[in-house]
Each structure stands twice: as structure tokens, then as C-alpha cells.
Amino acid sequence: MDQGLFITFDVNPNVNDRSINLPKNIIKLGKSAFYQNNKLRKISFNEKLQIIEEESFKDCLNLETVYFPLKIELNTIPNRCFENCQKLEYISIPSSVDHIKSKAFRNCLSINVLTIPNGIVSIEHDAFEGWKSSQEIVVYKDYGSFSNCKAKVVNLGDKQSEKDDSIRSKESGNRYFAVKCKCGHVSRRYYIPITFGVITRNRKEAAKQARNIPRVKHNHKDAILSCEEISYIEFVEIAEENRLDPYLQINSSYEQKDIKDMIKDRLVKEDRHITKDKKDHKVKSQRYDGKKIIKNYRKYSKYNGL
């Protein structure tokens, strides 16, 4: 495999891997690349991935987590892509996707809520065939009815104007804010920027409330990167995105190790952490008496009348 080229991932060479991070040079998943792989539990895609061909994950009966990075070039979920992935619980469709094809999520019975990004142009009528009444699909526009699908479809676009008006509720005085924060537990030198939705009366209170959210660097003076007022629709989108963020779902350092490769590209270096060469610093602070190092210059100065 030439790591310098962008290539197609046709067949998984490590069929016993439970967790796979797709290499950065992969821009295309070939047809049936992981077909009937019952060992696979987690798959993490790279930002350069552009094409997933049909049936890539069909009949992966134990697949539980599918992680798409926020910035990805993928624009289509193809035919039967995740068909019969009955244990699939976590998947967040990226905003780059325009089309969801036939039977793409057929019999994915463990997804409680699936949010369809506002930018998706078309969804095939049988994309969610077999879904149960206990499941929910959140959309922002009308895609027509889904055949053989009992899932509840919630259309947030139906009352968009009414919900946008709720940005300033005269009765409660509450408003919706998007607060971008520095999140930690990834060493002092780095942070992960994450936006949280906050309901409160003003920007000052929103920033204060966001500081107390778990994983935010609440003791850092510059923990709040930005604070903007948003609509109810945007607030719901942020809440759903955070609900599906694997970094925000972990409860221990052991769990964080499992998603290390998922979050490494999201790390941002703190401005104030400039690497210093301690050895050079020590040499510059040393003083000499001829060739001999003066260990205590204050004491040396006192006895030598300096």
C-alpha cells in the first residue's frame, strides 16, 4: 500500500478488528468493503472520504458506532449501506450529505433518534424500511412518507416561524445562546472547542452557565471562546450534535483511550503553552567564577563584596 496516494479501500484486510480508524489516504470505500463483518464494533472515517459504495456495511450485525468527522467530503449514503446493522446505536449523518439512498438504514433497529441534516436534498422512500414505532426520525423539511417504516417522524420545519419567535420569550424572558467553550481532559497544552446550547436571560449568564458544563475548562480565564444568540431550531441542532459526540459521552479515562484516534484531529494547542527548552534556560541563568559554576550567587556575592 502506497501511503502517499489516495486509494480505494476495497476489502478489509484485518477482518478480526473490533475497532477501525480509516486511514487518511482512503477517499473511497469499495462495494461490500465490510460486508458481513461480524467482528466490527466501531468504524471512524477520515475527513477526505468522498465515496461509500453500495452495501459497504450490510449485515455487520454487531456494528454499534459509526463516527463521521465534522468536516468530511462525503455526499451520499448509498443503497443498503447499513442494512441489517441491528445493533447500530450511534451515528450522526454529516451535513455534507445530500442524498440517502434505497434501504440505506433498513432494519437498523437500535437507533433511538436519527437527525437528518437540513441540507439533505433527497431521501428514498424505503431508506428506513423496518424501523419500529419506538424509534424517531427528526427532519427539517418534508421528504414524503417512508414506506414500511413505523418510526415517528418529527418535522421541526413545520413550526419553524413559531419556534424562531421563541428566541425572545416575553413570558419567561429566556433566550437561546450558542456558547463555544474550551473543553479539557486532553492535557494542559490542548483543548477541544465545542459549542453548547444554553437557555438563559443574557450573554453574561449564558457564559457563566456554560463554564459549569462537564468537561469545560471552567477555571480558565479564556475558557469561553464566543457567545451568540441563536434560534430554537439551532439550539435543537446543537443539542443533538452534542448528544452524539463520543467525547462528551465518556465517563472515564479508560473510555477516553478507546476514542483517542477519533478526537486527536480535534485538538487545538493553547496559545500560552510555548514549549521551552529547560536545559537552555538553566544554562543562561548560571554564573561562573572563572570556569567554576557558582551554585549560590547570592551567597557568593555577599562574601565577595559584590
Characterise the protein shown here:
With 306 residues, this protein is an alpha/beta fold. It has helices at residues 160-165, 203-211, 232-243, 246-249, 253-258, 260-263, 278-285, 297-303, and strands spanning 7-9, 19-21, 26-29, 42-44, 51-52, 65-67, 76-77, 90-91, 99-100, 113-115, 122-123, 136-139, 152-155, 175-183, 190-200, 224-230, 268-269, 287-289, 292-294. It folds into two domains: 1-158, Alpha-Beta Horseshoe (Leucine-rich repeat, LRR (right-handed beta-alpha superhelix)), CATH 3.80.10; 166-269. It contains eight helices and 19 strands. The chain has a four-stranded parallel sheet with strand order 2-4-6-8, with no helix packed on it. It has a four-stranded antiparallel sheet with strand order 16-14-15-17, with helices on both faces. A three-stranded parallel sheet has the order 1-3-5, with no helix packed on it. The longest helix is centred in the last third of the chain and has 12 residues, at 232-243.
Number of strands: 19
Shape: globular
CATH class of the largest domain: Alpha Beta
Query: CATH architecture of the largest domain, please?
Result: Alpha-Beta Horseshoe
CATH superfamily membership of the largest domain: Ribonuclease Inhibitor
Query: Termini separation (Å)?
Result: 69 Å
**Helical content class:** 10-25%
- The unreliable regions are 276-283
Radius of gyration: 26 Å
Number of domains: 2
CATH topology of the largest domain: the name is Leucine-rich repeat, LRR (right-handed beta-alpha superhelix)
Order of strands in the sheet with most strands: 2-4-6-8
Q: Would you tell me the overall average pLDDT?
A: 83
Element-level helix/strand string: EEEEEEEEEEEEEHEEHEHHHHEHEEH
> Main sheet, how many strands, which sense, barrel?
4 strands, parallel
| Tally of DSSP helical segments | 8
